[in-house]
Amino acid sequence: MNGVSGIQGFWQAIAEGRLVFASGVPVFMVLLLVVLVPLLVWYLYGRTTRPLTQNDRIALTAMRSMALVMLLLMLLRPVIQEWETNPQETYLAILVDDSQSMQINDGSTSQQSRIQAVQNALSPSVLSALREQYQLRTFAFGRDVRRLNSPNDLTAADNRSDISTAISHVGEQLGSLPLNAVVVISDGGDNSNLDPATTAEVLGGREVPVFTVGVGQPEVTPDIAIRNVRSDATLLDSEQVDVELSVSQTGFAADAVQISIWDGDTQVASRQVALGNDGETRRYTLPVVPDRNAAIRYEARIETLTGERLVENNRYQFLVDNSLPETRNILYVDGHPRNEFKFIRRALDADDDLRLASYLQTGPGRFYRQGVENALELSTGFPEDKETLYAYEGLLIGDVELDFFSEGQLGLIRDFVAERGGGLLVSGMVDDAFIDTPLSDVLPLELVRSNSLPGQLQGGIRRGAHATGTMFTPVLTTEGEFANALRLGSSDSENRTRWQDLPELQGIYVTGQAKAGATVLLEHPDLQYQRQPLPVLATQRYGSGRSVALTTASTWRWQMLMPSEDDSHERLWRQMARWLTDEALARVKIELNQESYHAGDEVDVSVRVRDNVFELDNNASVWLQVTMPNGEIAEQAMSWDINDDGTYRATLPATDEGVYQLLVDVTSTSGDGATLEQQGSFAVTPSLREYNDAGLDRRLLQRVSGSSGGRYYELSELDSMLTDLASAPTPYARQVDRDIWHHAFWLGLLLLMLFAEWAYRRYRGLS
User: Fold this and answer.
1) Distance between CA 701 and CA 25 in Å, rounded?
2) N or C: where does the chain have the smaller number of CB atoms within 10 Å of the terminal CB?
3) Cβ distance 427 to 443 under 8 Å?
4) How far apart are CA 349 and CA 358, in angstroms?
């Protein structure tokens, strides 16, 4: 019998529905006879010449019934249906995972790595036997697929595992040949963006089953892993970067461990932390201050503990781009000279990343310009066209009356925020005359008529002593405590303390409640309107940009009433100015398809180009210059994406580890026809994707085999898999009927039952 044999094969054939009777008798009739025969024998043994005990009757009935049933089955000719192929007529493809996770020794293979266990399982004798039966084709796969001459050629060095591409490759290469089956040997650590079960289902539709063989243990333990690193610039004047590490562990619950950040061979931050519970991922933050204006590749490290099985995932490289930013241009207009204007101007002038151009009304028909780049800037007053206003990223408006702006300029301010993505901050009083104007649409506050306010809120600062003109200390809301723009300390406790130490502000302008979609960052400690604390600082998204309302004009007190060495006032206004302009659209913006890359990845670079009024520009010439980690420079033209306005694309190979510098050169033939440049960078780092979640993914491999009509096996069951493979139904196999009585086992069992029943009867004195 080719395939299963003996009693095990008999029951397996019944379970799989492969047992039939050559006589044509239905299986259910045979089962009925099998039930009736013991009943008949039991009845007959009740009529013996000598009385039998109950145990004797049971034993004799069992032996006589088994013998009679076997004789009955023999007469009905039971056969097991199997499939077989002629040797060398069909092809068998074996795909072996050759990715880095196969280097892991997770204790499942007698201190062998997974790849060593596979090499031992695919011994010369096994491969030789397969070659006698099939036209054998062996492949190794990781990111790509390659022919494998010998299991000894496996290196387990690829940093990606793509089971779907491997199966698809074999289907394409051997699709026109009589492919009997595909065998995939892997730990299931697929980290592609494709579902291998879907690809296997395609082969299953062609009646080519995919058999999967799992290697390794479901869990690698004990182990500590850095899962992810996120670094966000905080807008602090120190340019501090908060680095957040996500760390998980199994087997080291609550242990203390040292985490650190390194710049090359220099440690720049470290911290002793307590690990979480098994399987728990905790986040830890370390502050880092870059020491140079460049794209810096840092490495996060976590110390190796005794007994740890995986050390590769104890390191994680990431990029912090601390290159000098482009200067952000901010326009500040104010209705009259005031302390707030003077101190805001002083704070922002000290920041090289910010340029503040101001237009200050000093009297009726008299204006003062400051911080302009040339004699023409603001020479005709507040901009009256998009091209002029859109040259700024931010707009600050002080205490101005409605007649300061024309109707067209108010609409332009709205478009500046919504279309250009600029930031608008209104500081101080917003007259209720602005109700029902485009400015009221943009602001995060619901403007209300002053005469509709409760009596205790009317008047305020403009009419002398009043509740709204008293001293107060603003309260940070929950959102305000976590807002980078309002950060005065690196820790939460320090931040709260420094805010409490600030001098009191004097007076608040009551304009109404925050809008439904707005976020309040600072609020009044005492005064309320419609049962809600009065907002002191509120913000909201509006179109592509953001708007901010500051309802006091006394933040200058944070400078005048503090010691000269205290920089809280300057720091807050610089941070708010950067935050205000942080998301303003750029005329040239570089976008990458991933945050980081590993060797062998493809880098998809897209560049979004806008003209001088920030309309998407499809008529530009775009060139990309790439400086490699080794200093080599390559250039290529970027292609316009016909399906995405204003977008130009290019693809780069990520070959060597290190930092890649990008320089985009854009020449536009529309709008002002300007020539523009934009810089960017990305890092190619060692990959951890093969070491995180590195346990055997049995469920994935079961889905792959199940979707194609194959089966899943453990590596220790490889021999069983190869035996089953030989009898698997495929288009190239023929069905054969195996008569089970051709085996000595069944004849011997029949004779044994007959002799045992005869001997037992004689023993009991029966004829």
Assistant:
1) 40
2) C
3) no
4) 11
Exposed / middle / buried, residue 113 (Cβ in 10 Å: 0-12, 13-18, 19+) = middle
The token pair that represents 551 in the structure block: 């309802």
CA distances from 113 to 143, 214, 310, 437 (A): 20, 14, 12, 72
Residue pLDDT, tens place only, 144-165 = 999 999 999 999 999 999 999 9
Q: With 0-12 CB in 10 A as exposed, 13-18 as middle and 19+ as buried, what is 26?
A: exposed
User: Which DSSP category does 742 fall into?
Assistant: G
Q: How far is CA 309 from CA 217, 250, 377, 609, in A?
A: 12, 11, 65, 49
The DSSP-derived string for 349-392 is: HT-TTEEEEEEEEEETTEEEEES-SSTTTTTTSS--SHHHHTT-
Residue 191, Cβ density class (10 Å: 0-12 exposed, 13-18 middle, ≥19 buried):
middle
H or E segment at 561? none
Strand partners, 652: 603
- pLDDT at residue 486 in the model: 94
State how far the Cα of 598 lies from the Cα of 192, in Å rounded to an integer.
13
Residues 511, 445 contacting (CB under 8 angstroms): yes
Q: With beta carbons less than 8 A apart as the criterion, state whether 495 and 484 touch.
A: no
Which residues are CB-contacts of 9 (< 8 A; sequence separation ≥ 6)?
Answer: 1, 3, 80
* Residue that the structure tokens 């610089």 belong to: 574
Quote the DSSP letter at residue 675. E
What is the signed CA dihedral for 165, 171, 174, 180, rounded to 10 degrees?
120
How far, in Å, CA of 449 to CA of 485, rounded?
31
CB atoms within 10 A of CB 338: 18
**What is the 8-class DSSP label of residue 159?**
S
Q: Which residues pair with 78 in a beta bridge?
A: 21
Residues with Cβ within 8 Å of residue 17, at least 6 apart in sequence = none
| Structural contact between residues 655 and 159, judged by C-beta atoms closer than 8 angstroms | no
HEC assignment per residue over 293-318: CCEEEEEEEECCCCCCCCCHHHEEEE
Instruction: Give me the amino acid identity at 106.
Output: D
- Exposed (0-12), middle (13-18) or buried (19+): which is 42, by Cβ within 10 Å? middle
Q: Give the separation between CA 682 and CA 629, rounded to whole angstroms.
A: 11
Q: What is the pLDDT of residue 13?
A: 61
Phi-psi region of 614 (alpha: psi -120 to 50; beta: other; left: phi over 0): left
Cis omega (within 30 of 0) for bond into 151: no
pLDDT over 60 at 430, yes or no: yes
pLDDT at 767: 65
Higher pLDDT, 754 or 13: 754
The helix or strand, by DSSP H or E, that contains position 245, with its residue range, turns out to be: strand 241-250
Please name the residues in contact with 671: beta carbons below 8 A apart, sequence gap of 6 or more. Answer: 611, 612, 613, 615, 617
* Model pLDDT for residues 539-597, shown as the tens digit of each residue: 999 999 999 999 999 999 999 999 989 999 999 999 999 999 998 999 999 999 988 89
Residue 361 CA to residue 152 CA, distance in Å, equals: 82
Ramachandran angles phi, psi of 432, nearest 5° = -70, -5
Question: Do the strands 19-21 and 366-370 form a parallel or antiparallel pair, or are they unpaired?
Answer: unpaired
Segment 381-419, tens digit of pLDDT = 999 999 999 999 999 999 899 999 999 999 999 999 999
Query: 427: which strand partners?
Result: 550
Q: Which helix (H) or strand (E) holds 321?
A: strand 315-321
Residue the block writes with tokens 């994935």 = 700
Q: Which two tokens stand for residue 369?
A: 């310009």
| d(C-alpha 105, C-alpha 85), whole Å | 38
**DSSP per residue over 423-465, as a string?**
EEEEES---GGGTTSHHHHHSSB----GGGS-GGGSSGGGGSS
